[in-house]
Each structure stands twice: as C-alpha cells, then as structure tokens.
Structure to design on (700 residues):
C-alpha cells in the first residue's frame, strides 16, 4: 500500500453525489475502548456435523413449518434436498402486505408543517439461500449463486405487478455487526410504497452528470487503478469515492437500468463474479461482517430517465462503526484509498 | 406503551425529507447471533479511585503534552484544576489544516464521468469536556455543560473566518458502538471545504416546506404527544419521523439559523436541557452508546435562506445496528414510535 506517501483527499462520487474524506492517517489512531466488532463467527459454528440443522434455526431444511408462508421455492436437483432456495414472507415484517395500500398522497396526519404519514403497506420477504445452516453464499458454486440472483429477480418482477409498490430494495446482511439477526445464509427484499430517499438522490445525481457530460456515470471508467476483476458481462471495481474501506461495486458492462431484467446467462456471469468477490473479501478481511445491496431503477420511471440509470450491486464490509460526523453530515471518512483496496483484492488469488 | 395496538406506519420528516418505517412488531424478532452491542462500560470504569488519570489517556489532566496542539482552553474556576475544557487539534485528522485550501472547483482528477477530487484541506478538532477521566458530560452541572457548548460556538466562529471553510459539523461519540475510540468525555468538530450532503438535503427540504406552506419546519409543532421537556428557550421532542429509537431533538423555540450565535443565557438554558435529556436516556436505556450532532446553517448562505433554516441538536442512542436496507435505501426502520419514546422519557424523573 502506498499509504505512507498519501495525504488526505476529499472525493465526490458521480452516482450518489456523496463527499467522502480519504484519510490513511486515521487508521493509526489509538483506542482505549474495546472494538465492538469481534470477528464474525462463521454461521456454521453452531451447526452439527455434516450441516445438520441447528436445533433452533427456522431457515434450516425440515423446519419450514416454523417460517412465515412460502412464496415460491427453487426445487432441488434430482436426488438432493427438497429445495435449494426458498422465498418466504418475513415473519416480523417492517411493512405489511395486508395493510391498505396508500391512496396517492394519502396523508394520515401532520404534526409539524410538511410532515407526512402513510399506513405501513408494503412487502417484506426473506430469501433463504440454501437449506444448509453451515453453507455461506460464496460456498455455493457459480450456478448456485446465480439461482439466488434469479430468485431475487423473479420476486422483484412479481412485486412490480402491484400498482402501489414503487421500489424493491434487495439486500443481504451477513454477521451481527452488519445487522444480521439470523446466521443461516439469507437475504431480504422490501417493496416500498414510496421511492426511497437514496434512490431519488442517486437518480438526480446521475441525471445531472448525464445532462452536463452526455454520459452515464457508470458506463465508462478509464482508470485501471480501481479495477478488481471482470467477466464477460460485469466489472468489479473499488469505487473512486467509496464510503467504506474495501467497498466493491459490481457493474454490468452494458448499460442497463433494471436488475430484474437479468437473464440466465447474465445471472450466471454475475453469480460467478459475486462469488469471487465475496471469497476475496472473506479471505483478505477474515470473514468480515458485510452487507450487499442492489441499486436499480424505480418502477415506472419515464423513458427519458433510462439513459442515465444503470443498475449495480454494492458490497460493503463493515470494518468500523460510523460516528456522529457521518450521521450528521452524510459524509464518510474512509481510511483506505480505493486504489489500494483494489490492488490488494486484484492480486489476491480466489 | 401502546405497542400492541399499533401497526406499521411510514412517515416522512419535514427536515431531511427521509422516510422512516415504524414497525413495533420488528422488536419481537428473534436472533441467533450475539448482539454486537454490549452495555457500554462507563468511561470511568478504567480510571483509578478518585478520578485519577487513566495511565494511558492523553485527554486526562497532566497529560497535555501527549496531545496535538491546544487551540484554546477554558480556565478553571479559582483553586480547581488548571483547565476545565480544552479545544485541541485532532492528532489523526481526517482533513488537514496544513493542506492547500482548494481553489473554487479545483479538481485534481476525474476517473468516471462526473467524479471530483480535492485535496483534503479542513480542520479537525477535539473538545475535551473535562479534565477528569471518570466524568461524563451529564455529570457536569448545567453551567459546566453550557461552557462546553460555548466552547463549540467560539471555535465555530473562529473557523468561520477561514474563507475556504463552508461548514462545521459539531458532534459527539459516546461508547464504542457509537464509534468512539476514546473513553474520556470529548466531542469533535470538522470544518469542511464543502457543504456536506445531508446539509444540502436538509436545506432543500426545509425550503420546499417553506415555499409550500409559508412556515419553517421547526418553528411550530402542535402535538403534545412527541413533547418531552422544555426550558424557556428550548424544546426537547421525540421527532415525528425519528430514524432511531429514542432519538431526541432539542430545538430553539425562537427561530434561529446559526448555532454559533448562541449567547451565554441561551447556552445555560441549552446546557440544562441537554444534561437532563442525556441523564434521562442514560437512566432509561442503561447508559447506551449515543451520538449527538448539531445541525446548523452553512456559512454565507444568502439571506433568503434564513427564514427556513433553524438549527437544532440531534441525540441518537445506538441501540441496534443498521443493515442493508438502510444503507441501500437511506430509509430507516424504527421499532419504537416517537410518541411512545416521548411518553416514557417525559414521565421519567431526572
Ligand atoms: N421464522 C421466521 N420466518 C420468517 N422470517 C423470519 C423468521 N424468523 C426471523 N425472521 C426474519 O428473518 C430476518 C433476518 O434478517 P437479518 O438477519 O438480515 O436482519 P434483520 O432483518 O433482523 O435486521 C437487520 O436489518 C434490518 C434492515 O436492514 C435493520 O433494520 C436492522 O436494524 C438490522 O438488524 C428478520 O428480518 C426476521 O424478521
Ligand atoms: N493524543 C491525542 N491528541 C489529539 N487527538 C487525539 C489523540 N489521541 C486520539 N485523538 C483523537 O481523538 C478522537 C477521539 O474521537 P472519538 O472517540 O469520538 O471517535 P473517532 O474520531 O476515533 O472515530 C469515530 O468517529 C468518526 C467520525 O464520526 C468515524 O469516522 C469513525 O468511524 C468513528 O469510529 C479521534 O479522532 C482521535 O484521532
């Protein structure tokens, strides 16, 4: 790492319009408080030998009745377990599918000027990525990961049919410090009756770049420095203005607005690259807690937006805790330059 | 708490324009991962008897030479320790005061279309709130807390003189899960060469409300339900669309754009209310990790902005970890309705 020779730099990204402060010196600051983030025990730690279900885990094979209703399953290959992937309702949903969908701009109360409230209508689903408690997403082969991605896409297409659903946020939490409450490998999606704030900000920022430069923010990048890996259809990079150390974006090389339009070949390609990147992060950072999020276009945007919306998958290892500066300003401090993270991950064999 | 009778609701606040999903059912979800947030050991835990300095703490009385340079100190009252408060440079600054201030729009590189980078110029200071290792901010009396607030304001006024400083973010981290690396009671401020993203979003949102309703988002609130406590000059509320459980805002009752214009009387009043609120949170939530942030107007905004910018102090206990939904969408899930948090805190004797 060229750490010693580098000084601080502030960078603004062209997708979210966020300022990030890069400061290698920060990583040398001392602490007299115990780090809150213990190495994330592998989910398999509590499982019996041979991947037997953990007695209390409702996501394990054979415990389907302890879960909220199933939406669909991906059947197993011949002579294996009865399913490979299950998409189920979240038993403790943040938004409720049985609530009355909000009328357009239907307000239920206003406390201070300008505030709005709507019933908590929406869809909150869980994707169980494997029947086995001791298998992590990147332990599957590329085909296995691609099946998970295709299950996301299929469910997003179903939710898109509902007129009140404006966006579906697909995400994965791995490890307690990344927010996960369940160890069994899974991801989630939330279909919301509004376009979430970060999505609006992202579209506005990409639009501004497009209008000024005539280019999509994600269609080209000249620098080899931030490049990590690629396949026929996707590139993995450490983004120029990464908010988090070792943050990775996997971007389709062909301009494309909607994740859910991914086809089988694309999914296989993405599955293979996602698997490689998660394996690299796990190896380099000792199985860190992480989140990944899919950033797509909201449903029903006008066709004039499509030239500047380009979907991508963001992977964020959780190596430190954010503090008051980030919460207050929306601006992140990152001790690791993306060029340095990219070099390390690029050279790592996985 | 009326928890059982409530169902999910989505609310949008009138200051940041953020959507928050309130979902009491979420607090009942199980976990098979160890919570990452152990009760936050009181900073005094490691101190010797009688508040003797902790051997390794550079913020303690007598260890001044182990710190980065002092900017100013608040002298002690007669026959007490040589200082009560010290404002010092951060030894591991995110932004550097010795860097070349960026020329307006000076770019140092562009990797993808629309990205920008500037040298990491700025000011990163630490406010040591007490010479004693075992004293927490709310252990001081109202006068002691108000002196800390006046020290913030004085330093902000100094930084405002620098033409390249656009904003100063004042914040405090308490406890490891709130990002703190040092246990000794302190806060920080960062003077940035750009207006941070959340500040821009806040101003835009408050402007939109003002233009539509002719009212400042923070000048009035009708509901007694979210009210917690007040003094002559300030109100403490649980904001209608709180992103975090038990989040508190302390708002000047008279419209005012700039925190740093606070005078001695106002500071005493705020000191007393801040102290009460921190004591209430500590009592109710068992000394939780928390952050507080001061949200003020950027320097040199045009006078037409002043009618809708209203400064306030936000306190955020860190009771859970955010996950991929929040990181991806910018939208928070909060299991505790602010009305319920307000009622509990209002009725708590402190
Ligand atoms: N038997 C069962 N059947 C069906 N579903 C079941 C179930 N038992 C548990 N579940 C659900 O499974 C999900 C597991 O999700 P994760 O472990 O990814 O994190 P969680 O959603 O708890 O919270 C993290 O992610 C969210 C969203 O980012 C953050 O708000 C939060 O702070 C963070 O801890 C939970 O949402 C839970 O409700
Ligand atoms: N001898 C000395 N003299 C002067 N200064 C000294 C010093 N020894 C240490 N310091 C400084 O004291 C500060 C203590 O700050 P905090 O404990 O509030 O959190 P920190 O800034 O480490 O990071 C938290 O807050 C930041 C900003 O929100 C987040 O980026 C980060 O992830 C989170 O952990 C550090 O910034 C450190 O550099």
């Amino acid at each position: 790492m060229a750490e010693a020779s580098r000084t601080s730099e502030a960078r603004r990204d062209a997708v979210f319009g966020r300022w990030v402060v890069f400061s290698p010196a920060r990583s040398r600051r001392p602490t007299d408080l115990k780090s809150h983030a213990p190495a994330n025990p592998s989910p398999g730690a509590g499982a019996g030998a041979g991947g037997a279900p953990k007695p209390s885990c409702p996501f394990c094979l054979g415990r389907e009745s302890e879960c909220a209703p199933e939406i669909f399953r991906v059947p197993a290959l011949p002579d294996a377990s009865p399913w490979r992937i299950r998409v189920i309702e979240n038993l403790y949903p943040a938004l409720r599918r049985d609530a009355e969908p909000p009328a357009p701009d239907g307000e239920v109360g206003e406390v201070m000027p300008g505030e709005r409230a709507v019933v908590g209508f929406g869809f909150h689903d869980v994707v169980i990525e494997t029947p086995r408690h001791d298998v992590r997403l990147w332990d599957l082969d590329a085909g296995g990961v691609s099946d998970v991605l295709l299950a996301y896409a299929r469910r997003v297409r179903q939710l898109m049919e509902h007129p009140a659903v404006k966006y579906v946020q697909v995400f994965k939490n791995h490890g307690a410090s990344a927010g996960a409450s369940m160890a069994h490998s899974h991801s989630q999606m939330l279909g919301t009756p509004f376009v979430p704030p970060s999505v609006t900000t992202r579209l506005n920022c990409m639009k501004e770049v497009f209008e000024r430069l005539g280019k999509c923010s994600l269609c080209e990048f000249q620098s080899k420095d931030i490049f990590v890996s690629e396949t026929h259809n996707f590139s993995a990079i450490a983004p120029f203005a990464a908010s988090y150390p070792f943050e990775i974006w996997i971007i389709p090389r062909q301009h494309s607005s909607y994740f859910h339009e991914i086809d089988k070949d694309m999914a296989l390609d993405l599955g293979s690259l996602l698997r490689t990147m998660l394996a690299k992060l796990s190896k380099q950072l000792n199985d860190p807690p992480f989140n990944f999020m899919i950033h797509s276009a909201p449903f029903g945007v006008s066709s004039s937006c499509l030239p500047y919306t380009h979907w991508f998958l963001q992977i964020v290892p959780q190596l430190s805790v954010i503090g008051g500066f980030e919460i207050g300003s929306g601006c992140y401090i990152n001790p690791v330059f993306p060029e340095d993270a990219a070099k390390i991950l690029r050279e790592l064999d996985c």
Summary: Helices of chain A lie at 142-160, 197-213, 264-285, 324-329, 338-347.
